[in-house]
Write a structure and sequence with these properties.
Blueprint (H helix, E strand, L loop, with lengths): L3 H44 L4 H10 L2 H14 L6 H35 L10 H22 L5 H17 L1 H16 L7 E4 L4 E7 L3 E5 L5 E5 H6 L2 E3 L7 E9 L5 H18 L10 E7 L4 E9 L4 H19 L13 H9 L1
Antiparallel strand pairs: 1-2, 1-5, 2-3, 3-4, 6-8, 7-8
Helix pairs in contact: 1-2, 1-3, 2-4, 3-4, 4-5, 9-10
């Protein structure tokens, strides 16, 4: 027969060892899953054409061991001699933490999927900070409600309280909510999109880099950022140089001497413009440039050369190269670009003095 003291000691050891063994076995299973199964899943994901599996695997890889640790603690609790109410309380906390961490993982997956497919599928809501944050808030809200339900907290009174307090919050945050809904309108209407080059009626212009819950960020060409409140953006007059198309006409005003052969001027100018379209980055090679005479100026016959650029900022290099090459060609062809001339009628002046 076993000595009573030894039996008590063995009983105490079992109380400690069994939960510890369960916890360590769960951790070992997690390590095995991460090193064996996930490695094979990662290799398999590399062979597929779509990126959904890569996103899911990468998002789950990081919190996987945390989940196994919480699972090990939850299973080990069932084999302990702790009071029942302690076990239940700790178990609920672990379940809540598990649901919360799973919510974080799902939010990360959804955010990456939105970024992936919104750029591919025309017509869906564009990817901005606003759309990504809203998707995360929805997922977090669902996760919080599940956690509260698992803890035995009734959701109905909380929803009722939020409904009553929502009016007071809306009144207190009128400007914030105005910018929020204006940001939604801007994003869904797709009249101003991330990546577009826009010019405001106040003179600021640049690339739209983001639309968040309060402001729209515009990066100007000097690399400065303009923050425009969404509500003001929806009320402003905006020129979007990317709608309906990125390509745009480049108009260059010129003038030649009155003694010039206008047919020759037109031919030479169009030849230079065609070379610029084909050779200068940002030009549209298939576009056929042309000119239009428009006025008899004080000292020149004026005309406009019409070229085409692939997008707004390409016009600067096109103008630079066109003016440089045209000046060189006009010099070779003896076509004169006149200076401003002012003539003084001395005879008229003398007649007025004699009077």
């Amino acid at each position: 027969m076993t000595h009573p003291a030894i039996a008590v000691w063995l009983q105490e050891v079992r109380i400690v060892l069994i939960p510890l063994a369960i916890f360590l076995a769960t951790i070992f299973a997690g390590v095995a899953v991460k090193r064996v199964i996930f490695v094979r899943l990662s290799r398999w994901a590399l062979t597929t054409k779509h990126q959904i599996d890569d996103i899911i695997i990468e998002s789950i890889r990081q919190p996987l061991m945390i989940w196994f640790v919480m699972l090990g603690l939850y299973l080990a609790l069932g084999a302990t001699s702790l009071p029942e109410h302690w076990v239940q309380t700790i178990g609920k906390i672990l379940v809540a933490l598990g649901i919360f961490s799973a919510t974080l993982a799902i939010a990360a997956i959804v955010g990456k999927l939105i970024s992936l497919y919104a750029a591919k599928i025309e017509g869906v809501m564009p990817v901005t900070s606003l759309t990504q944050n809203i998707s995360r808030i929805i997922i977090f809200g669902i996760g919080v409600m599940i956690v509260m339900n698992s803890l035995g907290i009734s959701i109905t009174p909380i929803l009722a309280t939020l409904g009553v307090g929502g009016l007071a919050v809306a009144l207190a945050l009128q400007d914030t909510l105005s910018n929020l809904f204006a940001g939604f309108h801007t994003t869904i209407a797709r009249q101003v999109r991330v990546g577009d080059y826009v010019k405001l009626e106040t003179g600021e212009e640049g690339y739209v880099t983001d639309i968040n819950w309060r402001t729209t960020k515009i990066r100007m060409l000097p690399n400065n950022v303009v923050l425009v409140p969404n509500a003001k953006l929806t009320q402003a007059i905006i020129v979007n140089y990317y709608l309906p198309d990125k390509e745009m006409a480049v108009l260059i005003n010129l003038g030649v001497h009155y003694n010039s052969d206008l047919k020759k001027v037109e031919r030479v100018t169009c030849e230079v413009a065609k070379d610029v379209m084909k050779e200068v980055p940002g030009g549209v090679p298939e576009f056929d440039p042309f000119i239009r005479y428009n006025s008899f100026g004080d000292f020149s016959i004026n005309f406009t050369a019409i070229l085409r650029a692939k997008e707004f900022t390409d016009q600067y290099l096109i103008k630079h190269e066109f003016i440089k090459r045209l000046h060189e060609r006009f010099t070779r062809e003896n076509i004169t670009i006149p200076y401003p001339i002012r003539a003084i009628n001395y005879g008229q002046e003398d007649a007025q003095k004699r009077e």
